[in-house]
Amino acid sequence: MAKISYEEDIIKNKKKLNDAKNSCSCGDESCGSSCSCSHEHAGYGNKVDKVILIRIAISAALLIFGLVIKESQSVKAVIFGLSLLVSGYDILISAGKKIISFDFFDENLLMIIAAICAFLIKEYPEGAAVVLLFRVGELLEDYAIGRSRKSISGLMELKPDKATVLRDDREVTVPAENVNVGDIIVVRPGERVPLDGQLLDDKASFDTSAITGESLPRNAELGDAVLSGCINLGGAVKIAVTQPLSKSTVSRILEMVESANAKKAAPEKFISRFAKYYTPAVIAAAALVLIIPTLIMRQPFAEWLHRALVFLVVSCPCALVISVPLAYFAGIGGATKKGILFKGSAMIDSMTKVSAVVFDKTGTLTTGKFTVTDIDSEVLPKDVLLSMAAYAEYYSNHPLAQSIISAFEGEIDKNKISDFREIGGRGVSANIGGVTVLAGTAEFLSGENIEFKVEDPEETVIYVAANGRYVGRISLADTMKKDALKALDNLRKLGVERIVMMTGDRAKVAQKSAIKLGIREIYSEYLPSDKLTKLSEIMAEQSDKGKTVFVGDGINDSPVLAAADIGISMGGLGSDAAIEASDIVIMNDEPEKIVEAVEIASCTKKIVMQNIMISVGFKLVVMLLGIAGLAPLWLAVFADVGVAIIATVNSIRAYDFEKKLIKFN
Questions:
Q1: I need a labelling partner for 54 at 20 to 30 A (CA). Which of 149, 288, 424, 451 fits?
Q2: Could you report the per-residue pLDDT of 536-546, keeping only the tens digit for each?
Q3: Burial group, residue 24, by CB count within 10 angstroms (0-12, 13-18, 19+)
Q4: Can you give the pTM of this predicted structure?
């Protein structure tokens, strides 16, 4: 079969989705509905074109009729010729167009050469059967591929057309792209959340399976983030929009899946190069199979022409050209269904070779939701110190800053804040109503020549200074993600030999978390530049053992995510910069999904290798049998079409991955 353009499978809008249903699989990007290639636009899905079925039925009836009637060879030749034309007239037209455009090396041309030559040596039934079987194989293959296409393009249903917005105390339905950040949208029971936002009601429950792969409903409370694409399971809720449609979770998913083919795996690149040179080489080899025995060894022409035709037909690279990209595509689709976004099949290959995983701590192994546990100040009342810190941190997106702001229950007057400055990994400074406030690490305040006594508690501490004078500290505690320990244990079972924690937190805090998780290699108090340097060292040490993964979620992790062999970002609530820089995105922020990513990659790669062995192995056997004169032409067609179908069906298994490789207790 012809090479399929999988880039057309993921589309940007519903119009393109509808167009894709009638797209051609001939691999020609300019091909439209009028294309006369061998594929009849079977509707890629579970529907089969009735015209094709009728043509196949008529062709088969003529073939059988020609086999059973007792007429002259010339009459039978006409009947078999009609059978060939009914099932394959479009193949003849396509081959003719290729010849006119001097593009001779096309599989349709191979089939027509085989069929015509079979007629020339009076093997009429085989000539007609070649095209008929080829057509049946295409139909079955299109059906199998269509199931995968339909599953992947089903993601398009997540993208909203409209949203219900509150404007002037009235509910107005508007196009989703016209909703602005800050607008309040209403999502009724059973409706899908159209844009990312913040819950304005006390409680709500959402089905997040389409986004995160999580089967259980997720409960949300006032102020919690709500992702677009989730389904409201309770009563009508109000949500304050925090991202425009173009930057919403659903849009990001579609963009990442759409561009997944940009980074091709090594086998895909090889197949693409291989297909260019393989077909002309096959025609040349088939010619040698005919010429050498007949001209040099004086063997019977008709017999060796038949053997050359078998060689020619069985050598079509259809199974490889289709099944290898499809296996990767199905693997990417299956991972997406579980909330794991691979940015290209190259990442699937890389994830099968992981030897080291480096984790950021906050927001990656921990929830990133800190709670204020203590406020210590001998200069100011505790509530005043907390208020001062909340004002200073107001414009920061750091988890610690957000926790301090949440702990301060009063309303912040933004007009009092000026000259805000944030120093990544260290702290913030701001002018609050004429008072210069610093809030951050001990090193940050010391660097500003502020004197104070530094303690070493086991919790994260934010030190605060006002007008150059130390005024107190705020202690915060983070909690481990519930699946973090299990994820690390399972990564070790998968053969990951080195697990590292790399964090900007203080040594004592980092060590306490690492002990709970069983991590022995810890690097603490690291700035983004320090992380980058240390990651380069780890990658160099692991280069002969495998790939190094870095897992993070924050803006400050972006350089490290981009530099790692494989960058994995926690994308549910992670920063846009981290998601953009990473190679794989975990949509529900669960570390256990990294284990699933490794397993899906291993399963997909296994299927790819199976397809290669099936395609090459079976064809090689039939090829040798053909040269030896032991294989009829119909077996050659099966070795081409049949093996392509088997490999295609095998590829689709990657879409329905359910921990097939490893079972954990």
A1: 149
A2: 999 999 999 99
A3: buried
A4: 0.64
